[in-house]
Amino acid sequence: MTQIDSIIDILFRIYFYMILFYVLMSWLPNVRETFIGELLGKLVEPYLTPFRRLIPPLFGTMDISPIIALTVLQFAAAGLKSVLHFFV
């Protein structure tokens, strides 16, 4: 069971850092137009888009939806591990 837990942890940690780097790239607008920026956008935007629809930016510019998305991702990882512990 610990192998499954470690695989889940690694996959969710990779996606967590992908989201984090994508958000940090927003501070440097030209970076998002590189190959890496476009690739991260294609992988991360489908997950972030529903959160951006639900949570409007604060003060017109500060987008907190990635923080909520990362929190939900952590809960999803913990929930997936607990469900797998139940069945295995």
Key descriptive features of the protein:
single chain; about 90 residues; mainly alpha; CCB3/YggT; transmembrane; membrane; Membrane protein YlmG
Write the layout of secondary structure elements.
Layout lengths: L1 H24 L9 H20 L10 H23 L1
Helix pairs in contact: 1-2, 1-3, 2-3
Euclidean distance between termini CA atoms: 8 Å
Unreliable spans: none
Q: What can be said about the biggest beta sheet?
A: none
Strand content: under 5%
Q: What is the residue-averaged pLDDT?
A: 89
Number of strands: 0
Morphology? globular
Number of domains: 1
Strand and helix order: HHH
| Computed structural class | mainly alpha
> How many H/I helical runs?
3
Protein name: Membrane protein YlmG
Family: Belongs to the YggT family.
Keywords: Membrane, Transmembrane, Transmembrane helix
Transmembrane segments: 12-29, 64-87
Structure description:
By secondary structure, the chain is mainly α. It has one domain (2-87). It has helices at 2-25, 35-54, 65-87. Helix 1 runs antiparallel to helix 3. The radius of gyration is 15 Å and the shape is globular. The mean pLDDT is 89. InterPro entries: CCB3/YggT. Keywords: Membrane, Transmembrane, Transmembrane helix. Pfam families: CCB3_YggT (PF02325). Belongs to the YggT family.
Summarize the structure in short:
The chain is mostly helical and 88 residues long. Helix content is 76%, strand content 0%. It contains three helices and no strands.
